[in-house]
Design a protein that fits this description.
alpha/beta, Rossmann fold, Dehydroquinate synthase-like, alpha domain, 2 domains, 7-stranded mixed beta sheet, 13 helices, 11 strands, 46% helix, globular, binds nicotinamide-adenine-dinucleotide, binds ligand LNCXM5UN, binds zinc ion, nucleotide-binding, cytoplasm
């Protein structure tokens, strides 16, 4: 098992990456589960795949799991589900010092973490991420949120988990499309700051996705280490460092909004397309080789993902996509900084991007 410290001032915690962590969840959480009843939030698919494993461990340790089983999918990150979850946690008489368990992907982690941040002005929670995306990204770093009709993650809080248990065995039941979507956030760490890791992805990504256990442990651990370092340096995204983790997301979130936050485009798929767009747009501006942008697009295509937004059949123009971007949380005094590339492994925040130029670029991409 790899143990990666997330060294946040005043609230450090561990990310444990290994196999069998769900089977031994009660022991892993020893000392944190103070009461007989343990509140666990999950979704219906994760519960079907892993509910009995977690239940068995908790029951064997003398606990009585209290399950909150939500519908699977992005629509669960909503005001309605948040309100109902908060009411349920209050009915469970959760105290600040208790630990709420979040068993699932980024949807469950983001929603549960946000509920934990506001119940009694802040309770503890433990992330039990079961998707590749959640293990390499969403369970770490403390961004929690729901979506609103205005856009993605627009209401939320920074609230760090007390512990993260990334069980690699969970990836064995994850559908291939979800694995691929999570892989986009793995590749992101290479593109934003670690060219050697992008090379590793090109060499080993396919075998990692196919199930090689050692490669999976390496991909998850190296991703978590990269994220932990950035989060330690800029927890609240105020210094322009954490913003690097948003590479591909301004484009990606606009595509998710345009497709109605539906199964038509998963978050990771939007991020993959968004990073290809950021790379091509960097090439259009002249500070990134066009051939390298196509290298990135090819890598995602080789991994089985869509490489061009024209394939989405969006039936909209570039201006419709840039309109969604006005809600981006990086907006600053009316301008939107964009994460762009100078090289593979060297992302930067460009503050001189004109949205009209982005819209014109997207018109070309929609017709590609
Ligand atoms: N907080 C952050 O820093 C952060 C980072 C990245 C993404 N996110 C958010 O995460 C969300 C996406 O997360 P996701 O990709 O994990 O999606 P998800 O939570 O919707 O899970 C994907 C699907 O896989 C199923 N599933 C999960 N684990 C499974 C398993 N082990 N076996 C079988 N099925 C399983 C789920 O039921 C769901 O249908 C988005 O809302 C995104 O905005 C947040
Ligand atoms: O942890 C971060 O910081 C990230 O930006 C990680 C992203 O992968 C994630 O999708 C995040 O939720 C996006 O943040 P947002 O602030 O653009 O909503
Ligand atoms: Zn993301």
């Amino acid at each position: 098992m790899a143990v990666i410290p997330v060294d946040i001032a005043g609230r450090p915690y561990e990310v444990r990456v290994g196999t069998g962590l769900l089977e031994t969840v009660a022991q892993q959480c020893a000392g944190r589960l103070r009461k007989k009843r343990v509140p666990i939030v999950t979704d219906e698919r994760v519960h079907a795949a892993w509910g009995n494993v977690v239940e068995a461990s908790l029951v064997a340790a003398g606990h009585e799991p209290a399950w909150r089983i939500l519908p699977a999918g992005e629509a669960t990150k909503s005001w309605d589900q948040l309100a109902a979850l908060v009411d349920w946690l209050l009915a469970e008489e959760v105290e600040r010092g208790d630990h709420i368990l979040a068993l699932g992907g980024g949807v469950i982690g983001d929603l549960t973490g946000f509920a934990a941040s506001i119940v009694k002005r802040g309770c503890n929670f433990i992330q039990l991420p079961t998707t590749l995306l959640a293990q390499v990204d969403s369970s770490v770093g403390g961004k929690t949120a729901i979506n609103t009709p205005a856009g993605k993650n627009l209401v939320g809080a920074f609230h760090q988990p007390a512990l993260v248990l990334a069980d690699l065995a969970a990836l064995d039941t994850l559908p291939r499309r979800e694995l691929q979507a999570g892989y986009a956030e793995v590749v992101k760490y290479g593109l934003l700051g670690d060219a050697a890791f992008f090379d590793w992805c090109e060499a080993h990504g396919a075998a990692m996705l196919a199930g090689d256990p050692a490669l999976r442990e390496y991909a998850v651990s190296r991703s978590v280490e990269a994220k932990a370092k950035i989060v330690k340096a800029d927890e609240r995204e105020t210094l322009g460092l954490r913003a690097l983790l948003n590479l591909g997301h301004t484009f990606g979130h606009a595509l998710e909004a345009q497709t109605g936050f539906s199964d038509r485009l998963l978050h990771g798929e939007g991020v993959a397309l968004g990073m290809v767009l950021a790379a091509r747009y960097s090439a259009r501006r002249g500070h990134f080789p066009a051939a390298q942008a196509e290298r990135i697009a090819r890598h995602f295509a080789d991994a089985g993902m869509i490489g061009n937004i024209s394939a989405l059949g969006l039936n909209c123009d570039g201006a419709a996509l840039t309109a969604h971007m006005l809600h981006d949380k990086k907006m600053d005094a009316g301008t939107l900084p964009f994460l762009l590339l100078n090289a593979i492994g060297e992302a930067f925040l460009a503050k001189d991007v004109e949205l009209a130029d982005v819209a014109a670029f997207l018109d070309q991409e929609l017709a590609r």
